[in-house]
Amino acid sequence: MTNPTTASSLSRAAFATLLLIAFMMGANHVAARLAFDNGVSVATAVAFRSSVTALVVAGILLVYRVPVSLQPRHRKALPAIGLLVGVQSLCLYAAVARLPVALALLAFNTYPLWTALWARVFYGQRPQPRVLRAMPVMLAGLALALDVFGAASGLGASGHWARIGVGVGFALAAAATFGMALVLTQHETGDLDGRLRTATTMGIVAVMALIATTAQGGLALPTAPTGWWGLLGLTFLYGTAFTIMFTVLPRLGVVGNSAIMNIEPIFALVLAWAILGQSIASVQVAGGLVVVATVMWLGLRKG
């Protein structure tokens, strides 16, 4: 790994790569919605995406001859992390299938708050002051983005939540499980090579998704060409973004700057408007910008 850069000296190549990953992740969820709207089930999408990504990262392990050496605590933690990421993947795609894509991702972007909560519960770590300062701001932005009183939708609070409540619940469940996975990763497997950890996690997620598809009667494949483009697109975009993340980013030295990738919901908002015809009210866009800016501030601040 070459000389890591700091946030203040982030190279143009590194910055562009981070933005590319954010764009691909946002596009992945738009492609997923195309697939869902054309007969693909959530479990099928996760199975395709995770299986291909696991194979790609496993190939990287072989090419780079990454040693596979697991300590007892790794063997205990990795299955738990894999299960959590599996639940997160299923829940987030379930949210994307029910909500405007950008709103699903904005609700999911509350995961830093969940991370702070789980670190406190499991390891007794007090939240950093900046997390406590960010919490009300992020929640206020999310309330605007979700139009909690139903003013922008014109449906009123009860009618609006009857329409979005299940999707928001799935997005928040995804954020909670992802935050827990991050805490376990940091404390139990932080010394493992990221590629090995990712290959293991994606493999477990793929198995979970395949079990889910079997319980549902088998893979639910697209019923129209658009669905195939969506399924192939989400698989390609997700797998490629992860490959870049674990091969290119370490060489560019972007440790500490990955918060830039949290601009993903903004890319998703634009793509969903252009491709899916989804739009949200201007006050919801403003709330979304507050959430994204707060998450980026949390990630980029050093103290």
TrEMBL record:
Keywords: Membrane, Transmembrane, Transmembrane helix
Nuclease among keywords: no
Record field: transmembrane: 42-64, 76-96, 102-123, 135-155, 161-184, 196-215, 227-247, 259-276, 282-300
EamA domain segment(s): 17-145, 167-298
Domain of life: Bacteria
InterPro entries cross-referenced by the UniProt entry: EamA_dom, EmrE-like
The name this protein goes by in its record: Drug/metabolite transporter (DMT)-like permease
Organism this protein belongs to: Hydrogenophaga laconesensis
Organism placement in taxonomy: Bacteria, Pseudomonadati, Pseudomonadota, Betaproteobacteria, Burkholderiales
